[in-house]
TrEMBL record:
Protein's recorded name: TolC family protein
Family the entry assigns: Belongs to the outer membrane factor (OMF) (TC 1.B.17) family.
SUPFAM superfamilies, per the entry: Outer membrane efflux proteins (OEP)
Chief subcellular location: membrane
A GO-annotated cellular component: cell outer membrane
Swiss-Prot/TrEMBL keywords: Cell outer membrane, Membrane, Signal, Transmembrane, Transmembrane beta strand, Transport
Organism: Aequorivita lipolytica
Length: 418
């Protein structure tokens, strides 16, 4: 006997550890990590790095190779004759090949402003990904608590079957010795088969919902997995931390940064340039021969009047900021309404659960008396089954209300952003 106990205590922890337990918080973490949308954040960062490299290349010199051969119907000729001097006109067929280099020296910080705008866009896009991933939590809640409800219903149905099986054994013994009519036994057997049907349906419903949760988490979940019933504490006074609020702030910042880019687009641009070439004629138009040549210099471009385009663009940005502000106000209003509804649901289930406890206590007393009456042959199996069903319906209702209470609390925390 001692040896058997020793083996049990050695194996028991291994069996417990082998049974997988999943919590609601673990589901949230797995979804944020494995859901395909989560990969976008890193991809957006890679995209930004490429775009910034492209912007930085604007600071590098630009080299162009140009070549042309032309024939023209007329050329420059001197209208007068200079004594003792012969000036030949240029050839009508001309050839030229050049390498042109342009180096940006100053552009009013336009590249830096565009880089800053790209970084602001990245933050906004990554926050949008965070918002989309956050929305998954509501779907996870629905699947998680549905599975939890099926899980608890399986326990209650199994408990009910055990209790009914005990009565059935008593009826079988009673029929054997002629103390009970066979109909009483058959009625209990029919009820057992009905319970087996309900248990089968519950198991299949649980498995189906578990598969949905598995897809949301991108993780295979075994049908034997146990979901933990979470203890959720809510604080209505806590400050809202919804990711949408940060998204609105980042959108406003992005729009404000774009105004800086608009302003700097009209700043003067200073470039250095150089040209080296070979052609006929060269820079000396009076020399009809192939020559090499070069020139260097500076050039500036400044659009001093743009017909108010810059002002209109900034006004458009300001309108966009107003649109973002209205979206933020709308979100806060709807979020406040959702909070009030969730708070009301929590209070509703608190009161319902108090009544559930009283109902179950009374049903248990009735069933206890009914069981004694059945054992003494004072009532039929039908009357006993009625009271047994009443008790377990009350327990199932209580379990449903407890799950709905936990779901309401979990949804409240998501609505609140905590």
């Amino acid at each position: 006997m001692k040896r058997l106990l020793l083996i049990f205590f050695v194996i028991a922890p291994l069996l417990l550890s082998a049974q997988q337990v999943l919590t609601l918080e673990e589901c949230y973490v797995l979804a944020e990590k494995n859901y395909p949308l989560a990969k976008q954040s890193a991809l957006l960062k890679e995209k930004l790095n490429s775009e910034i490299k492209i912007l930085e290349k604007e600071k590098l010199p630009k080299l162009d190779l140009n070549a042309q051969a032309t024939y023209q119907t007329d050329v420059i000729e001197f209208p007068i004759q200079i004594p003792n001097t012969t000036i030949e006109p240029s050839n009508k067929d001309q050839y030229r090949a050049t390498i042109d280099a342009n180096q940006l020296i100053y552009n009013g910080g336009n590249i830096a402003a565009n880089t800053k705008l790209k970084q602001a866009e990245l933050q906004t896009q990554q926050q949008q990904v965070a918002v989309n991933l956050y929305a998954l939590k509501s779907r996870i809640n629905q699947s998680y608590f549905s599975i939890l409800l099926f899980q608890e219903q399986e326990k209650l149905l199994s408990s009910k079957m055990e209790q009914l099986d005990a009565r059935l054994k008593e009826m079988i013994a009673g029929v054997k010795y002629g103390a009970v009519l066979p109909a009483s036994q058959q009625m209990l057997q029919a009820e057992m088969l009905k319970l087996e049907q309900q248990l089968t349906q519950t198991k299949f419903d649980r498995k189906k919902t578990l598969n949905n949760l598995s897809l949301l988490l991108s993780k295979s979940l075994d049908s034997t997995i146990i979901l933990e019933n979470p203890e959720i504490l809510v604080s209505p006074e806590s400050i809202s931390e919804r990711p949408e609020l940060e998204l609105f702030n980042l959108q406003e910042n992005q729009l404000e940064t774009s105004k800086e880019v608009i302003s700097k687009s009209n700043y003067p641009k200073l470039l250095g340039f150089a040209q080296a070439g070979y052609g006929n004629p060269g820079l000396n138009m009076l020399d009809n021969s192939f020559q090499d040549f070069y020139m260097v210099g500076l050039k500036m471009n400044w659009n001093i009047f743009d017909w108010g385009k810059t002002k209109e663009k900034k006004q458009t940005v300001d309108i966009s900021k107003e649109i973002v502000l209205t979206e933020k106000e709308t979100f806060l209003l709807n979020n406040q309404m959702q909070q009030k509804e969730a708070e009301s649901d929590i209070k509703k289930y608190e009161e319902i659960l108090q009544k559930d406890t009283e109902i179950i206590m009374l049903r248990e007393k009735v069933l206890q008396a009914t069981t004694s009456q059945l054992q003494n042959g004072a009532i039929t199996s039908s009357e006993y089954i009625t009271e047994l069903n009443n008790l377990y319906e009350a327990k199932i209702d209580n379990q449903l209300h407890e799950i709905q209470m936990a779901l309401s609390k979990a949804n409240f925390k998501i609505i609140k952003g905590n």
